[in-house]
Amino acid sequence: MTQIDSRPATVPAERVRGGVTVWAAIGIFWIVLSAQAYIRWLASDTEFAAAPLLGPDELEHWRLIGLRIVEAISVAVLAGFVWFCVIRPWLRTGRLSLDGKFVLGGMVAFSSDVILNLREYLFAWNANNINMGSWASFLPFHSADSSSRYAESIVWGPPMYVYFCAGVAIVACSYATRLRTRYPGMSNVTLFSLIWVGEFVFDIVVECVIMQTTHAYAYTRTVSWLTLWPGEVHQFPLTEAILVATLGCFYTWMRMAALEHPQGLSPVERGFQRWPQRLQAPIRTLAVIGFCSAATVLIYHLPTNWFGLAGDSYARLPSYLLPGS
């Protein structure tokens, strides 16, 4: 795995360009917004509690075992990313690599997951997930008509924001290097088209396997002509794979740009030299977190909400996928 580290500034001040301050401000904004939501959620007597497991439907034992396996694998995957991308590079160099910043950014961006259900219950969670409810009611624009008493997974949810973003960028950059070596005349359009298709297929395979075997979650409302198995509990909107692949490509572009930059800078980190030396590393980290948060909301969550609210295919949900009152 090729790591992109934080190298000292070597560019003259008069030639420094970049919007690192804006991206860092977005990062700070999202960290504060997330922190207040988590704190209020933890302090709540009604919201910080496992979502009710409604009857009469019961999850089959083999699906429950599958769900626990998914949770265990997810924890192991996240621990691997934290060790190899965050802790080990830090211990070796005293600096965070870009991959490490991506991992931290994905974990911060996970707080935005509840945006999916701010207006309506569009993303159904299985109440058998290890959970303590959700923090949806503590973010702006949450509708009182949309229940917040559902089982937001705190075990396999955060890893998805890491391996579908940082993970695919690492793998895609590795393959991109090989493709460019073998086909030096390949254009960026062709290269990113191949990467996008790969990420599109990866998302469909991973999500459909998890949904059909464990019922860990479901898409309650989708656009029928863009949906696989419409009307079934495991109906899968192709818009999900389209948006996830597009988000992954943005991460890949960021990482490739950093690999090609003389100082190893991603586009959002450029201009950090304007800041005092002691603040440069934090500013760069905050900028990447800002990118991760903004990209997740703008490229994935808001379009997903739009497609869900416009959907005409309703999944037949068992009671364990329904929210409490």
Protein architecture, described:
The chain is mostly helical and 325 residues long. It has helices at 20-43, 61-93, 98-109, 157-182, 188-214, 238-260, 277-309, and strands at residues 123-125, 217-219, 221-222, 227-228, 236-237, 313-314. 55% of the residues lie in helices and 4% in strands. Strands 1-2 form a two-stranded antiparallel sheet. A two-stranded antiparallel sheet has the order 3-6. A two-stranded antiparallel ribbon has the order 4-5. The N and C termini lie far apart (47 Å). The mean pLDDT is 94.
Rg over CA atoms: 20 Å
Point out poorly predicted stretches: none
How much β-strand is present in the residues? under 5%
Helix fraction bin: 40-55%
Quick one: how many beta strands?
6
Distance between the termini: 47 Å
The ordered string of helix (H) and strand (E) elements is HHHEHHEEEEHHE
Largest beta sheet: strand ordering: 1-2
Number of helices, counting only DSSP H or I runs of 4 residues or more: 7
What's the main sheet like?
A: 2 strands, antiparallel
* Shape, principal axes of CA atoms: globular
Spell out the blueprint of helices and strands:
Layout: H1 20-43, H2 61-93, H3 98-109, E1 123-125, H4 157-182, H5 188-214, E2 217-219, E3 221-222, E4 227-228, E5 236-237, H6 238-260, H7 277-309, E6 313-314
Antiparallel strand pairs: 1-2, 3-6, 4-5
Helix pairs in contact: 1-7, 2-3, 2-4, 3-4, 3-7, 4-5, 4-6, 5-6, 6-7
Report a brief summary of the structure.
This protein has 325 residues and is mainly alpha-helical. It has seven helices and six strands; from the N terminus they run αααβααββββααβ.
